[in-house]
Structure formats: structure tokens, C-alpha cells
Amino acid sequence: MKNGRGKSPTKRKVGLHIHFSEFDLPPMQDVLLVGRRAPIGPEAVRRMVDALAPGQYDVILVDHTYIEAVAVKTTLFNWISREDLISTLVEEGNKISNENSIIKAQLDVTMSVFKEVELYNV
To answer: What confidence tens digit (pLDDT) does each residue in 33-43 have?
Structure first.
């Protein structure tokens, strides 16, 4: 088929890649690392999580060169101490973030137990 100018129209195609996933409220996962010069600061993060998921997150200020605060789902503190979790998150987050970053992270906590018991009649 030719257009009004005598030329065949160019065919163009657009590819779509659609990924559907469960919507999370607030729009963060288990952890949010907030850089010192990030577009939103710790107080804005605190207001966001308090409005969308009251009582489910703690926003903790940290003393670090690039990272100013860490917002953490409070249920994670049932598995690991607050100090150990925050220091681990800051240590690992430091490797991929900068002072302008806001990094969200999903944290899967698993526990394994090995226990020996005495056998009867042995």
C-alpha cells in the first residue's frame, strides 16, 4: 500500500515487556536506605510510612558518610538485633549507594536449626 506521496509507508513495531507484581504499600519493601542528599529525606520517609503503614516501619538515623537513614520493617527486629541488622544494612548498602541514592531492599530472613537428642535404649 502506498501513501499519498507514492512511497510505501514505513512499518514500525513496538515491543512491549510487561511485568506484573503485587503492589506493596508503602512503595518500599523491607528496607529503604536514604542517602544524605537524596530527593526525599528521613522525615519525608517517616511521614510516608506513617501515613501508609502506621507502626510497621522504624526510620533510624545513622552516622555514615553517604547514608543518612534506614527505614526498616519493624518485624525484622524479631529475627535479628536492631544493631546487627542496621550495621549489616549500612555496610552492604554502602557498596551500591551514594549520597543521592534511595535504595529499597527486600530482606529474606531464614533460620535453620540443628539439634541433637539422646536416643532411648541405646
So the answer is: 999 999 999 99
Residue 39 near residue 114 (C-beta atoms within 8 A) = no
Name, in order, each residue with C-beta under 8 angstroms of 38's C-beta and a sequence gap of 6 or more: 68, 99, 100, 101, 102
Name the amino acid, one letter, at 62: V
User: What are the C-alpha distances in Å from 121 to residues 35, 116, 118?
Assistant: 62, 16, 10
Residues 6+ positions from 48 with CB-CB distance below 8 Å: 26, 40
Q: What is the pLDDT of residues 65-122, one digit of tens each?
A: 999 999 999 999 998 999 999 999 999 999 988 999 998 888 888 888 888 988 887 6
- In the chain, at which residue ranges do the beta strands (DSSP E only) sit? 31-35, 57-61, 67-73, 102-105
